[in-house]
Amino acid sequence: MHRRGWDQLAKWRDFRMGEGGDLWHRAIIDPTLLEVVGPVRGLSVLDLACGNGYLTRRWAREGAMRSVGVEHSRPTLALARRRERANPTGAEFLDRDARKLSGFASGTFDLVVSNMALQDIRNARGAVREVARILRPDGRFVFSLSHPCFDLDDRSGWVVERVREPDGHWHDVVWRKVRAYRDERSVDVSWDISDRETGWTTGYHRTLTTYSRWLREAGLAITRLEEPSPLPEAIRGTPQGSYMLEVPLHLVVEARFLPSGAPRRGDRALTRPGSRSSAGNRPKESPRSGSGDRRRRSGSVRRGSTTGL
Question: What mean pLDDT is predicted for residues 160-186?
């Protein structure tokens, strides 16, 4: 059985994430993300593409002056609101498109966080522009995403070789193979719902250059960049956990406004607001990447695959 799109995966994702995140978030991504975010007491926080809102509610409990989760999948949003009704924290959940955060005045938030979402937003450039609009002058944008250098949909994977040492002992050597890094494109992404069900969504591979350019166009500069390492739980919970001690598959980025506090007007991309990026920077539409089996063989942890290699 196949399911298509985020709406169709809402209940499954909510079950997996719960109130603390699934294994990949709980023991790989979120510890670094939360460390970069830091204390939120007294801050106005926006959780962009919040999913079931477990982080939105966490920040409300931790004393955020305002903690707002925005989500454009209505079934997902309904599940976030149901969790909030069951255990009220003061978090708000709103239906908003990340590319157009209507209803929020400019300079509304101290902090905007996006956890593993930008690579799934078609117009992520527009989302970054909107984030910059709603941030206060001293605000921060913190986001995580699949590492563009090492986790490229079906164009990257683990290679594990058995190597014999001179003393006769054998050990595993892990390699991460990558191809076509500069080829920005959209790709069908599979999710292992069960042994008999596969879910499909659309993701977008972009280079580090593209993400940094979009931030610069919006007047933001990268002030911190971290590559999360797996905690012991992840090392025990999946064969890939130990591999990520050597090669990271995620990034956490913090960005702030440039000293000028405004976009650089010299950037050609800003000469016509809303204009398209150059052809070389637009993800190209592509045919499906292949079957779920092919996806699982890639060994990516971006989607929380329940299989090993």
Answer: 90
